[in-house]
Design goal:
about 140 residues, alpha+beta, Thiol Ester Dehydrase, Chain A, seven-stranded antiparallel β-sheet, 3 helices, 7 strands, about 35% strand
Length: about 140
């Protein structure tokens, strides 16, 4: 197995992807997923349970990061494996700007069978929102 830093080269970094989440996106996701938990739409409820405000659905956040992976891979069926752990919620303000998620990736290794292992970083407001985020993809065609 070859690592992305063999031969004293810098790690291969993929282009950063940026996604914006607004309250309208949360409403649409709630309708599609059936998850109408008030922490995803009511500031009063969210702060009442100790959150800093309305938060994005974790699975929606994970899906946006997954979108970046499929864009890098070139096709959804090129994603062989994808795992994350949530570290902090994405707070979505009640304004026209919403919240912005930035997704970056570095190639960790290329396996003998040509699969590409990625280490992913997802941030919102400069804070990491995922830990141990990794993906394995087939090379783009």
């Amino acid at each position: 197995m070859a690592t992305a830093t063999d031969a004293a080269t810098a790690p291969i970094e993929l282009p950063t992807r940026t996604y914006r989440i607004t309250r309208a996106d949360l409403v649409r996701y709630a309708g599609a997923s059936g998850d109408f938990n008030p922490i995803h739409w009511s500031d009063r409820f969210a702060t009442g349970v100790g959150l800093p405000g309305v938060i994005a659905h974790g699975m929606f956040t994970m899906a946006l990061v997954g979108r970046a992976v499929t864009e890098w891979a070139g096709a959804p069926d090129a994603v062989v494996d994808y795992n994350v752990r949530f570290t902090r919620p994405v707070v979505v303000p009640d304004d026209d700007e919403g919240a912005e998620i930035e997704v970056a990736a570095k190639v960790r290794e290329i396996t003998e069978d040509g699969l590409i292992r990625l280490d992913l970083t997802a941030t919102c407001g400069g804070e990491k929102i995922l830990a141990q985020a990794r993906a394995v993809i087939r090379p783009p065609r």
